[in-house]
C-alpha cells in the first residue's frame, strides 16, 4: 500500500508513539509491507513528519494525524480586533446577510397584516371570534419567524437591520366575497408570497455556497410554509362553499373551537 505524505501531518503507530522522525517533501511516498515500514525518496522539507515505532515488525501503520497549530496560523491573522466586527463570522457573505434582513422584513409585514385582520374580526359589529383568533395566532407566528431569523443573523455574525413596515388595510369586507372569504384569500396570497421569498433566500444561500443557511431555511421554514399554504387553501375552499350567509358563522365556530378536542 502506498501513502502520499501531505503537509502538516504525521504518521503514528497504534500506540500513539512518535518515534524515528523524518522530514519529507509533499512528493515523498511511504510504503508499507506486511512487517515493516519502508520510506522511499527521502527529501528534507518542512511540515511533514513520518514516524514508525521501534521494533514495529508486527504493528501496522494506522494513518495520518492532523496538526492544528500549523493550520490555524493563517486563521489567527483573520481574527478581528475591533469591537464593531463579529468574532463568530465565517464564510458568511454580504449577499446572505442582506437576504436574511429582507426576509425579516417580509415576515414582519405579513405579521402586521394578520394583526390588522385580527383587529377587524374582533370588532363588536363583526364578532367573528374564530377568525380573530386564527389571525392573531398567525400574526404571532410570523413575528416568531422574524425573531428566529434575527437570532440566526446574529449567530452567523451578521447585523440585523430592520426596515420600514407598510401600513395594512383596516377594512376587509368585500361586496361579492364577504369579509371572511376575502380575508382568507388574502392570507393564502400572503403565505405564497412568503414561500416565494423564502425560496429566494434559499437560492441566494445556494449561490454563495452557504450550506448552513440552506439547511436552516429548509429545516425551519420551507416544510412549515407548505403546510400553511395547504391548510389555508382548504379554508378558502370551504368558505367558497358556504357563501356569505349563516355558513360563515359555523366556519367561525369551527376555528374558535379548533384544538379544544385534542386538549380535552
TrEMBL record:
Entry-linked InterPro entries: Ferritin, Ferritin-like, Ferritin-like_diiron, Ferritin-like_SF, Ferritin_CS, Ferritin_DPS_dom
Protein name: Ferritin
Reaction(s) catalysed by this chain's protein: 4 Fe(2+) + O2 + 4 H(+) = 4 Fe(3+) + 2 H2O
Residues binding Fe cation 1, per UniProt: 107, 145, 191, 225
Location in the cell: Plastid, Chloroplast
Domain Ferritin-like diiron: 90-243
Native species: Rubroshorea leprosula
Domain of life, per lineage: Eukaryota
GO cellular-component term (any): chloroplast
Subunit structure: Oligomer of 24 subunits. There are two types of subunits: L (light) chain and H (heavy) chain. The major chain can be light or heavy, depending on the species and tissue type. The functional molecule forms a roughly spherical shell with a diameter of 12 nm and contains a central cavity into which the insoluble mineral iron core is deposited.
Pfam families: Ferritin (PF00210)
EC number(s) on file: 1.16.3.1
GO molecular function: ferric iron binding; ferrous iron binding; ferroxidase activity
Binding site for Fe cation 2: 142
GO BP terms: intracellular iron ion homeostasis; iron ion transport; response to oxidative stress
Amino acid at each position: 500500500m502506498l501513502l502520499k505524505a501531505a503537509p502538516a501531518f504525521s504518521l503514528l503507530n497504534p500506540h500513539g508513539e512518535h518515534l524515528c522522525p523524518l522530514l519529507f517533501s509533499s512528493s515523498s511516498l511511504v510504503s508499507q509491507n506486511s512487517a515493516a515500514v519502508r520510506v522511499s525518496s527521502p527529501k528534507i522539507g518542512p511540515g511533514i513528519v513520518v514516524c514508525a515505532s521501534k521494533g514495529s515488525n508486527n504493528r501496522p501503520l494506522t494513518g495520518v494525524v492532523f496538526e492544528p497549530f500549523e493550520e490555524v496560523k493563517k486563521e489567527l491573522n483573520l481574527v478581528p480586533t475591533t469591537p464593531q466586527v463579529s468574532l463568530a463570522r465565517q464564510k458568511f457573505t454580504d449577499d446572505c446577510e442582506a437576504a436574511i434582513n429582507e426576509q425579516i422584513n417580509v415576515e414582519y409585514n405579513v405579521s402586521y397584516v394578520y394583526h390588522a385582520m385580527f383587529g377587524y374580526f374582533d370588532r363588536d359589529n363583526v364578532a367573528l371570534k374564530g377568525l380573530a383568533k386564527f389571525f392573531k395566532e398567525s400574526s404571532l407566528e410570523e413575528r416568531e419567524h422574524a425573531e428566529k431569523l434575527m437570532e440566526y443573523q446574529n449567530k452567523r455574525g451578521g447585523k440585523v437591520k430592520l426596515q420600514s413596515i407598510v401600513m395594512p388595510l383596516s377594512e376587509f369586507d368585500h361586496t361579492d366575497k364577504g369579509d371572511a372569504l376575502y380575508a382568507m384569500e388574502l392570507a393564502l396570497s400572503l403565505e405564497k408570497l412568503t414561500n416565494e421569498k423564502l425560496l429566494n433566500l434559499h437560492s441566494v444561500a445556494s449561490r454563495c455556497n452557504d450550506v448552513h443557511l440552506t439547511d436552516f431555511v429548509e429545516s425551519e421554514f420551507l416544510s412549515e410554509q407548505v403546510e400553511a399554504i395547504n391548510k389555508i387553501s382548504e379554508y378558502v375552499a370551504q368558505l367558497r362553499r358556504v357563501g356569505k350567509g349563516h355558513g360563515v358563522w359555523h366556519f367561525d365556530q369551527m376555528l374558535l373551537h379548533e384544538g379544544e378536542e385534542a386538549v380535552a
